[in-house]
Amino acid sequence: MKVxxxxxxxxxxxxxxxKALEITPYEVILEIKDSKIKGRGGxxxxxxxxxxxxxNEAEPTKFVICNADEGEPGTFxxxxxxxxxxxxxLEGMVIAGYAIGAKQGFIYLRGEYNYLRKHIQxxxxxxxxxxxxxxxxxxxxxxxxxxIRMGAGAYVCGEEFALIESMNGYRGEPHNKPPFPTxxxxxxxxxxxxxxxxxxxxxxxxxxxxxWIREYGTELSTGTKLFSVSGDVKNPGLxxxxxxxxxxxxxxxVGAEDAKAVQVGGASGINVARKDFNKTIxxxxxPPGGSIIVFGPNRDMxxxxxxxxxxxxxxxxxxxxxCREGNYRLLEGIEMLEKGECSVRxxxxxxxxxxxxxxxxxxxxxxxSPNCFLTIIENFRDEILYR
Amino acid sequence: xxxxxxxxxxNISKIISKHGIGREYLLPVLxxxxxxxxxxxxxxxxxxxxxxDIPIGEIHGVMSFYSFLNSEKQGKYVxxxxxxxxxxxxxxxxxxxxxxxxxxxxxxxxxDDGKFSLLHTNCIGMCDQGPAMxxxxxxxxxxTPEKVFEIIENYRGxxx
Lengths: 387, 160
Ligand SMILES: Cc1cc2nc3c(=O)[nH]c(=O)nc-3n(C[C@H](O)[C@H](O)[C@H](O)COP(=O)(O)O)c2cc1C
Ligand code: SF4
Ligand code: FES
Description:
Chain A contains 15 helices and nine strands. Chain A has a five-stranded mixed beta sheet with strand order 6-5-9-7-8. Chain A has a four-stranded parallel beta sheet with strand order 3-2-1-4, sandwiched between helices. Chain A has helices at residues 15-22, 25-35, 47-56, 77-84, 86-100, 117-129, 160-167, 196-208, 210-214, 247-254, 301-315, 321-338, 344-360, 364-368, 370-384; strands spanning 63-68, 104-109, 145-150, 191-195, 224-231, 237-242, 261-264, 270-273, 291-295. Chain A is an alpha/beta fold. The longest helix of chain B is centred in the N-terminal third of the chain and has 18 residues, at 2-19. Chain B folds into two domains: 2-65; 77-156, Glutaredoxin, CATH 3.40.30. Chain B is an alpha+beta fold. In chain B, helix 1 (2-19) crosses helix 2, helix 1 crosses helix 3 and helix 6 (92-103) packs parallel to helix 7. Residues 82, 84-87, 123-127, 130, 132 of chain B line the site of FE2/S2 (inorganic) cluster (FES). Residues 156, 174, 316-320, 323-324, 361-363, 365-366 of chain A line the site of iron/sulfur cluster (SF4).
């Protein structure tokens, strides 16, 4: 379970694509499926299956979208990938295009990363010059182009349905499924949306094989994962670990063994206290997300919780009541806790409300925003009640 | 007035012909118009609406959704300080104080000379180097009160 450099390791531009173009699109999808890789954007959907859904659609016009809307508090891995490893992202998108039968890809880049736009465009242009993008890629009968589209400051647009709405020129509001983007996405055509890190990973799966990737991680959570580490820690920054690493091991690597708690998966994630530091991080245990926020021994957890809830109150798109009202009520409850005015009875009501939000909110934002409330209250009830 | 209307028409027309007329280009067009004028006023809105054939109310609805699209004039330099968890834990409140003190405005306000607007924003992906802020499209991290003072001085003097 040592530190691994796979996604962050060396990669020869074109090596993944060359292999991909030697086999059929169907075989590319089989290889991705065989790797059992799950999406790195948070929801953990199997990448190969998503690609297969899109490939199977009869409509001939299809699209590939790279989700670079990275907005989860504490996450910066995608920014670093786009800055230091742009070719890996772009090449992964071309492979995806070949696999599902798309000719056009987009990078949906959050407005906050506007300063990266030129840098990415330069790499797109140079890939074109090198024959890895554009017409007749590597001499094959396959064309693919990539365009950058900017977001404009809305966290919820990272949710794939909202992202598609935004790209179609509407308010970035999630909607009920189906249809899924693989059925009706950009311009209502079959579209795959994948995370920046997922596309990076694809190169290695194709160039080194599904078996090789499966040697890392666990049975159900294969491969390595990038973690953006911040908070009360000696060495904050970007790390790559095998999935299945324990919280303890991770904290040791980053220099935070004295931590009081860790937020795994950002504001939408789970708060883990010392007693649970032996738990592993994987899709089947503690879902990884991209963000690890460490709370040191002297941290007051109530202001941290308040900061999370303020985030959700602001970023909720307001479309459905459980999320719009619920987050607001939770924040109000936190303010009562701050003043020592929240009764045990009311706190219990808020916990019930949280469960309702998880069950009845329309999208992942409202379904996961109560997580921080539930887990921080659970872990630090004594510290927080009637202070 | 007629002349100004003409200039706006031409500018918007240029932006639209660069992107395209379809609904899917609304956000790129709004983004670029916003960058050109610093905000999107009624005149610009009317032009976009007419040229793209999208009702004004619709465009209002889209604009109000995105925090980076301004319907009011902003300062030449828009400062967005991250207030999310990791920056908060890295004492972003000290940076708030310097900014307000140096610019002599509160968050949400613009300086009288129209140079600076001061805003909060959520996580900007610099969490390992907080506190962090954006000034227009530039990112500044590991902020200290002194560093902030220097940055503002430089923008004031037009050195950046
Ligand atoms: C509120 C919200 C915000 C999200 N933000 C992002 C994001 O910034 N980047 C991302 O890749 N996925 C984000 N997701 C997950 C996407 O909906 C989607 O599952 C993901 O982009 C699929 O890519 P993957 O399969 O490669 O993980 C978000 C989900 C929700 C509910
Ligand atoms: S859960 Fe929240 S963010 Fe998602 S659709 Fe409902 S109101 Fe919007
Ligand atoms: S928390 Fe401030 S940049 Fe992420």
